[in-house]
Amino acid sequence: MTALAPASGNRPLHTISFEGTAAWRGTPVRTQVRILTARSVRDLVLDRRLLAMSMVEPLLMLVAFGQVFSALARAPGFPPGVRYIDFLMPALLLTTALHSGVQAGMGIADDTRSGMLDRLRSLPIRPGSVLLARSVAGLARAVLRLAVLLAFASALFGYRPFAHPAGLLAAVALSLTVGWSLGWVFTALACWIERTEPLYAAAGLLMFPLTFASNAFVPIGQLPPWLRWTAGLNPVTHGINATRDLCLSGAVGTGALSAALTSLAIAAVTAPVAARGLNRPH
Amino acid sequence: MTRAGDAPAIEITGLSKRFGSVTALDGIDLTVPAGTVLGLLGHNGAGKSTLVGVLATLLRPTRGTARVAGHDVVAHAAGVRRCIAVTGQRTTLDLTMSGRDNLIMVARLLGARPRPARARAEHLLELFDLVRAADRPARTYSGGMRRRLDLAVTLTRRPEVVFLDEPGTGLDPVSRLNMWDAVRELTATGTTVVLTTQHLEEADRLAGSIAVLAGGRVIASGSPRELKSRIGHRTVTVELATDDDAVEARRALHRAGLRPVLDRVERTVSAALARDPDLTAVVRALDAAAVEPSRLTLTEPGLDQVYLALTGHRHAETP
């Protein structure tokens, strides 16, 4: 260690020591994922705005759709004996999980912007660890939002979550699976596209028809013919059919299984694409 | 693993990098011995940051090869990353987390156990004068504090090669001196440092060798002394007590074969010296003329002269 140069009178009397750091040459993948996940989850908790948004959004959805469309329950073609809140909740579970997935996927763009990604890429870390951690943290956030959604719906809007407890749990699990998998598509996009602003715009544009051109708020039979046709093609419709079946009757349709498997297949394809995009030198 | 005294820390051969139609690097050849400081000097767009990006495995070269700490930057990028530390022009921090947590997280990711990671964070916070701000979110830090924290994170472990991309930017004068000290201490531990700078003084003060970049090429390289002696002249300035002495001194230096310039206001005579013995000639000539200088100073040529002569540009930040 060299002595302090006289020019640095204001400097604290320390010199750099690297004692004990020689063995720090990396850590196993599972430790990488654990540390990075803890970081993302902590960011979620520390960032009050983000936390508040996670709370307010489900409430807004409930007020907006639950109240505005509740008259639909008396319209012809609505499933008999079903209250609108019970019809709406399975759809909100799925779309909320989808939105969470999209946001989590693009969270990697925040790291690009802040320069944190350059730091992580310069460390001996697998790119997959960075992505997996983001995605797990996103899942945690989705769980939080679904819990808030269910709590508000039960406390304020008369939703009875435990009519079919096993069905509800399965619907939540399915929603999380679908949302988490779709998140990987957006993660892959965010890893390959340099400029993220157009990506945010594209995600918004895509999510709008996916959510509204579906049976989320209105039974598919009440839609105008052209929209009925579009909604029939929309994968979100099939996902909502599955969660609705689970919540309303506790029945596991083939829809639930195929929705889960299709989603996981999409994740299996897009996750490696995302990792390659992150690791590529520019 | 490369150690000081063994193979060079960095070997660059015929390195080029194009972004579409823009050639950012155009056939760079450079060798940096281990444990030394290389200063990459150049104005904006000269290719400094691109070169650092390639060496830090963040950018893929279009042509040519580069080896850092014995590893090829393309074929063995992971090996390079294990041996280097980078602090770029942008800070690379998690701004939501506190300064302390940033340091702890990187130490943990490098493989430190929780307790040593905390101790390491403490040492680095003290070293970079960030103890009082340690538990505030990095978002609330001033630009200079972020730079310091970024440098601290970079030094979590002893890297074999450190890349400092314009490290002085955004630092106040005291912080800059501290940063210079940190760089000197680093090289004393055997680490190789590559720093880019637009500040000629910074390169002059820190770097054992300098490569001047312009248009993606190395247009000159060598030690600061070599570069200066190749281009610049040392200047002797003689300060006299009276106007008569000043005039007499000018005549004396003229007789000695120099081209003295008289400043009547300051009562000084100055002359460029082409070779070292000229200084002796100056003293002899003054002595022979029985002129007693009140002060005699010898000025080294500045790198700004070097830069100007090589690139034909006056640097924007040159005073």
TrEMBL record, chain A:
Pfam families given in the database record: ABC2_membrane
All residue ranges annotated as the ABC transmembrane type-2 domain in the record: 49-281
Coiled coil location: none
Compartment list: Cell membrane; Membrane
Keywords: Antibiotic resistance, Cell membrane, Membrane, Transmembrane, Transmembrane helix, Transport
Membrane disposition: Multi-pass membrane protein
Keyword Iron-sulfur appears in the UniProt entry: no
Residue ranges of the TM segments: 50-75, 87-109, 130-156, 168-192, 199-220, 256-275
Family listed: Belongs to the ABC-2 integral membrane protein family.
Protein name: Transport permease protein
Classification lineage: Bacteria, Bacillati, Actinomycetota, Actinomycetes, Streptosporangiales
TrEMBL record, chain B:
Membrane topology of the entry: Peripheral membrane protein
A single GO molecular function term of this UniProt record: ATP binding
InterPro entries (alphabetical): AAA+_ATPase, ABC_transporter-like_ATP-bd, ABC_transporter-like_CS, ABC_transporter_ATP-binding, P-loop_NTPase
Keyword presence, Acyltransferase: no
Subcellular location: Cell membrane
UniProt keyword list: Antibiotic resistance, ATP-binding, Nucleotide-binding, Transport
Location (main, coarse): membrane
Leader sequence segment: none
Keyword Nucleus: no
Residue span, ABC transporter domain: 10-240
Protein known as: ATP-binding cassette domain-containing protein
Organism: Actinomadura yumaensis
